[in-house]
Design brief:
It contains five helices and five strands. A five-stranded parallel beta sheet has the order 3-2-1-4-5, sandwiched between helices. Bound molecules: [cytidine-5'-phosphate] glycerylphosphoric acid ester (C2G).
Length: 138
């Protein structure tokens, strides 16, 4: 029986922290399914994305560790996704540690270490404060 792993994320301004966790998630099983947060759902998460959903999900689909990418449009779809895709393990970065323990009723739940020193917010701030000629407003 193939082991299916499920995770979710915004994956805005895709960076090495995102790639590292996708590699680590795939190493947990055979099939990796990634729910990519829609722009509308991100507003509910209090996030304004730089890159639109259709581009973020196309990037995720192109990553060799990812087998299936689906839209994440609500907090509550996780349970139905777990059953729809016969998920063995839900896993996500440990910035969410404990937040999804209720899913242990349906599948294994694992929190993986994040990559230190990088985040989408940090990248956005770096771009804002950079004095690189290409970024200086004309
Ligand atoms: N991540 C990481 N290291 C970083 C940054 C992010 O391991 N330096 C991981 C996060 O822990 C998460 C994934 O990359 O597992 C995607 O991160 P975000 O795009 O910030 O996703 P988030 O907004 O946390 O969405 O319903 C769950 C939410 O949709 C999760």
């Amino acid at each position: 029986m193939k082991k299916t792993i499920l995770t979710y994320g915004t994956f805005d301004l895709f960076h090495i922290g995102h790639l590292n966790i996708l590699r680590n998630l795939k190493a947990l099983g055979d099939i990796l399914i990634v729910g990519v947060s829609t722009d509308e759902f991100n507003l509910q998460k209090g996030k304004k994305t730089a890159i639109p959903f259709h581009e973020r999900i196309e990037i995720i689909k192109s990553i060799k560790y990812v087998d299936i990418a689906i839209p994440e449009s609500t907090w509550d779809q996780k349970k139905s996704d777990i059953f729809e895709y016969s998920v063995s393990t839900f896993a996500i970065g440990d910035d969410w540690a404990g937040k999804f323990d209720h899913l242990k009723e349906y599948c294994q739940v694992i929190y993986l270490p994040r990559t230190e020193g990088i985040s989408t917010t940090q990248l956005k701030n770096k771009l804002k404060t950079s004095n690189h000629p290409s970024l200086i407003k004309r």
